[in-house]
Amino acid sequence: MLVIVEMINTKLATLDLFKEVNNTFPKTKEIVELKSKGKKVIGWLCTYVPEEIIHAAGALPVRITGYGQEVELEDANAFMYINNCSFSRSCLQMGLKGEYEYLDGVIGSSTCDGARRLFDLWCHYISTPFHHMISVPRKYTEQAHTLYYDQIVLFKKSFEDFMGIAISDEALLDSVYVYNESRRLLKRLYELRKLENPPITGAETMEILNANFRMPKELFNRYLNKLLEELETSGIEHKCRSRLMVTGSVMNNPEFIKSIEDLGALVVTDELCTGTRYWSDTVVLDGRTPLNAISRRYLDNFPCARMVPSDERFNRVLDLVKDYRVDGVISQIIRYCVPYAHDVPLITPRLKVISVPTLGLDVEYGTSGSGQIRTRVQAFLEMLEAKRK
Amino acid sequence: MTGTENSSQIVSLIRTFKMLNRFNRTRSDARQSRILYFDMLTEYYTQIKNAHDAGKMIASHPVFFPAEILYAMDIVPMHTEMTTWMDALFLKEQGELLAKGAELGLAPEICSPHRGVAGMFALQKVPRPDIILWSNLICDNTAKFGELVMQITGSPGYFLDNPFQNSPAEMSYLVGELKDMIHFLEQNTGRKMDYTKLSDIVVRMDHEIELYREISDLRKAVPCPMSIDGYLELLGADYMFPGQPASAKYLTLLRDELKIQVESGRGVISPERFRLMTLFIPPLYLINHLADIYAGLGTVSVVEPMFTRWSEGRLDPSKPLESIALKSFLLPERRSMYGLFGQTAINDITESAEQFKVDGAVYWAFLGCRHTCATIKIIKETLNDVDVPMLTIDCDLVDPTVNSKEDTQSKFQQFIELLEDR
What pTM value is reported for the model? Predict the structure, then answer.
């Protein structure tokens, strides 16, 4: 007999604040207000861009994301061709439509073909004043760290020139503190998801994560602190028929996760660059200069599928599966997201060895979980239940 | 396991190249450089077939990989994508390789030659490579396919991390990566790097780059002395035989042949009606048919800026590793396919159109090559600015189910009609 999700309807007031940010993004109240006060807002395209440097210069870093739903991407299809991933095309579409017209700069990194071409086209067709591309090695060797550090130094210098200021070590340290605090709070949030009956759903967590990219970090930390207090005392318990993990391409759509959870499962963790991979590792100073420590953290962070060897990522995925007692993995891969697509034949057998089934979903960015996806997830959940019996 | 036990694809290729050359040698109009090229291919695959029996090690490697290192260490190189290309071009067995790739779990969006490579190794169509080498130059597919090949073959591998942009730090990083790769190869093959040999290879490679430039310049002549199939030979010469005596001989012969034709005012087709720029690579399974279409319509491909125009710079044999690293920055492909797509790449397109007196351009939009297709609109607009129309044809390099020769011919004819109306 199936156990369905039990939703205790206790209001999490602070969660609504995060949702409000997301519902009004890209032109949120805070962004509009900061712009009116002359503050610079800088868009970043990938998690290998160190936000602390932007923050330390007194600018607001904002993650460039695409539409929160599957929409026609006519302009982007014409500009970028249809065989680039729909995340890149969705971001470009928003840029071309002027949704990010307030940005003072765009920072890219050479992480994947989609990201680098999005940056190229953004530079060519969208008149954002400042552009910078960071070369990111694909390895973790000392040589790779030296190169990445060199790139971070170049970026800092270039950004200082644009901002007309020098970024001090003290300012970087302050930013490291603020960002590490944010990472620690998100870790606390995720710890709650390890509980037998977590007080928060995967879809709600995604709302929080999205807001994290879109508002001043200090304000986010205040809100999240408050929300954690609410969660820890709320008595909310979400029971579920299966505990799931979502892996794969960039995905930040709460509706997609909600469509899975509406079937009675609970997404308890993820391996997404909008989720765990964004916050999991802190900047560790350990006697290093702030810039060096930042550089270390970003290259050594929970890796994207772009990095070699992939075992580093696979091992972390397997650890998450164990830590969060995951019953099954949903591997959602955006069409033409080649780095993740190549890993399917490599990671699926590793999960099979520890008896964790995988459901592979080919999706488009922004999908909210169409009828077919729901049908497949439903069948997957039934299979997981049959396996447990 | 010996090389002869599991090399059906290699054996078929060798047989095909020999047969083609038997036929070529009977033709009075056959280009001697073409005959030499097929002899080189025969020798290349014979080396692979016999490698294990001869006690040699085989290292597989992808496109834009410094195979010079392997030649200097007397390790037999096996170019993975070229081998699947050859399969599509000459054996037409790519369907079987792609089906196996799909069976392994590779999505259809993944570049078909790489799906084919996985299928080729899984089906044991070629001898098992002892070493798997791969690199991120030039895309996510080249960066990602190596680990699966390692899993399939059980062979150890090394990933060469080629930096994205061209700065002193990145050049230094690449030299360090090459050193690490050599160390890996020495550890895993028992072979030692012969730096004297590598310097000799660099000398030849530098000379070959000069020959590539001369050949490119000769194609500016009206009428143009080389056809579209010659373009693919140029790619093969560098991809498979970099810095080798055979490729130097081939390029010298081709250069001399083209020179004679230019001096005598003879083009590869007569009359030459339209001069085309080729962007990316035409479907390999259509290449012979395409040569006929081009000839039938009086058109000739005179320049391929993404593949045949080398950047400025010379190699220095006294610094062999630095030179091998530098070569990867001089590659024509690097300007438009790797690193930022900026003004240099745009200027390259404009200059090519002007210098080669181009009437039109054909962009072969290989759907598996996302990063090149992403720049189609910029290139089209750039060409429009210099009054050169561009035809874009969606295609796949090796998968014949994406477009038929009839469809390609029809699009091509319509484009030629458009050029005629101008």
Answer: 0.95
Residues of A in Cβ contact (< 8 Å) with B177: 143
User: Does the distance separating the beta carbons of B376 and A137 come in below 8 Å?
Assistant: no
The torsion of the CA quartet A46, A47, A53, A54, rounded to 10 degrees, works out to 50
Could you say which residues from 36 to 55 on chain A have a Cβ atom under 8 Å away from some Cβ of chain B? none
Q: B173 vs A117: CB contact, 8 Å cut-off?
A: no
Residue A149 with chain B: CB contacts under 8 Å: none
**CB-nearest partner of B141 from A146, A151, A338:** A338
Strands (E), chain A: 41-44, 60-63, 105-109, 130-134, 242-248, 265-271, 328-334, 358-363
Residue type, A128: T
Mark yes or no for CB contact A309/B365 under 8 Å.
no
- Interface contact B107-A333, CB threshold 8 A: yes
Which among B135, B370, B377, B385 is the top mutation candidate for probing chain A, defined by the most A β-carbons within 10 Å of its own β-carbon? B370
Residue A366 gets the label, from left (phi > 0), alpha (psi -120 to 50) or beta, of: left
Instruction: Name which of A238, A298, A236, A240 is nearest A265 in CA terms.
Output: A240
Q: How far, in Å, CA of B28 to CA of A251, rounded?
A: 62
Using one digit for the tens of pLDDT, what is the confidence trace for A259-283?
A: 999 999 999 999 999 999 999 999 9
Of A135, A139, A345, the CB nearest to B106: A345
pLDDT at B201 over 90: yes
Domain residue ranges in chain B: 8-166, 197-420
> Which residues, numbered 285 to 324 in chain A, qualify as contacts with chain B under a Cβ-Cβ cut-off of 8 Å?
305-306, 308-310
Q: Check if B8-166 and B197-420 are the same fold.
A: yes
Q: Is A114 on the interface with B (CB under 8 A)?
A: yes
HSE-up (13 A, CA, CB side) for residue B184: 19
Three-state secondary-structure class, residue A298 = helix
A154 contacts in B (CB within 8 Å)?
Answer: 167
Segment (H or E) for B93: none
Q: pLDDT tens-digit profile of B72-92?
A: 999 999 999 999 888 888 888
By C-alpha distance, which of A261, A270, A244 is closest to A374? A261
How large is the average pLDDT for residues B264-276? 94
Residues 322-361 of A with CB under 8 A from B: 333, 335-339, 341-346, 348
Record: fold of B8-166: Rossmann fold (3.40.50)
User: Which residue carries 């390259």 as its tokens?
Assistant: B348
ipTM for the assembly: 0.94
pLDDT per residue over B224-264, tens digit each? 999 887 888 999 999 999 999 999 999 999 999 999 999 99
* Chain B residues close to A331, C-beta within 8 Å: none
Which amino acid, one-letter code, is at B110?
I
Could you give the residue ranges of the DSSP H alpha helices within A289-370?
A: 290-300, 311-323, 338-353
Reduced to 3 states (helix: H, G, I; strand: E, B; else coil), residue B23 is helix
Q: Pick left, alpha or beta for residue B387 (phi over 0 → left; psi -120 to 50 → alpha; otherwise beta).
A: left
User: What pLDDT is stored for residue A10 in this prediction?
Assistant: 53
Comparing alpha-carbon positions, the chain B residue that sits nearest to A308 is B159
CA angle A117, A123, A125 (to 5 degrees): 100
Residues B14-25 have a mean pLDDT of 95
Could you give the domains of chain A?
2-170 (3.40.50.11890)
pLDDT tens-digit readout, B128-143: 999 999 999 999 999 9
CATH number of B197-420: 3.40.50.11900
- What residues have CB less than 8 Å from A264, skipping those under 6 apart? A2, A3, A4, A5, A240, A241, A242, A381
> Which among A81, A143, A348 has CB closest to B365?
A81
Kindly list the distances between the CA atom of residue B226 and the CA atoms of B218, B347, B384, in Å, as whole numbers in the listed order: 9, 24, 26
